[in-house]
Amino acid sequence: MTAVWAARHITMSRERRLIGSFNHGSMANAMPQAIGAQLAFPKRQVISMSGDGGFTMLMGDLLTLAQYDLPIKLIVYNNSTLGMVKLEMRVAGYEDFGVDVKNSNFAKMAEAIGIRGIRVEDSGDLKKSIAAALRHRGPVLVDIVTNPNALALPPKIDAKEIAGYGLYVAKQTLHGRLFESIDELKGNLP
């Protein structure tokens, strides 16, 4: 899901590149790829963007960042869910199950191993937090609490996906959970 947000909001150029596992959409590749990129290009600024699910799969690599003092900036979209998996389940017409995870404070964890940690819980603090991370000479983990119900929509949506999401909404309605979901979405619609 972070790749969808990055593609929508970050302009790539000859000087700014985005690497990732785009064909397979695999999780847990952002930090290892960032480590490789930083080692290959030590003078370039490298930023790793991952969701909390993908980040936790290989968070042991934080020890590598600390050990080698790599100046990588880790951006963790912390929505306490496996967001793309949840969305894929809903689009297929399934009620999501087993995709929510306990909210963790990754900034505190980073601090515990000697990496600067910054936690963003208020969107008004985002710009200054990112600026502070980029100014810091060593590794930084920016733990950004995000809305688990924010929809990262693909550029094209087909009728099968619409029908599947409609089936999900019908199931939520029948089980009396839809109105909770709509209340959660308030304030997050364009």
From the spread of the alpha carbons, the general shape counts as globular
Number of domains: 1
Distance linking N and C termini? 18 Å
The total beta strand count reads 4
User: In the CATH hierarchy, what is the class?
Assistant: Alpha Beta
* Strand arrangement in the largest pleated sheet: 1-2-4-3
Structural commentary:
The chain has 190 residues and is of the alpha/beta class. The protein has a single domain (2-185), classed as 3-Layer(aba) Sandwich (Rossmann fold). It has 9 helices and 4 strands; from the N terminus they run H-H-E-H-H-E-H-H-E-H-E-H-H. It has helices spanning 2-9, 30-40, 52-57, 62-68, 83-91, 106-112, 126-135, 159-174, 178-185; strands at 47-51, 73-78, 116-120, 140-145. A 4-stranded parallel beta sheet has the order 1-2-4-3, sandwiched between helices. The relative contact order is 0.13.
Secondary-structure blueprint of this entry?
Layout: H1 2-9, H2 30-40, E1 47-51, H3 52-57, H4 62-68, E2 73-78, H5 83-91, H6 106-112, E3 116-120, H7 126-135, E4 140-145, H8 159-174, H9 178-185
Parallel strand pairs: 1-2, 2-4, 3-4
Question: How would you concisely characterize the structure shown here?
Answer:
The protein is built from 9 helices and 4 strands; from the N terminus they run ααβααβααβαβαα.
Annotation keywords:
190 residues; globular; Rossmann fold; 9 helices; alpha/beta; single chain; four-stranded parallel beta sheet
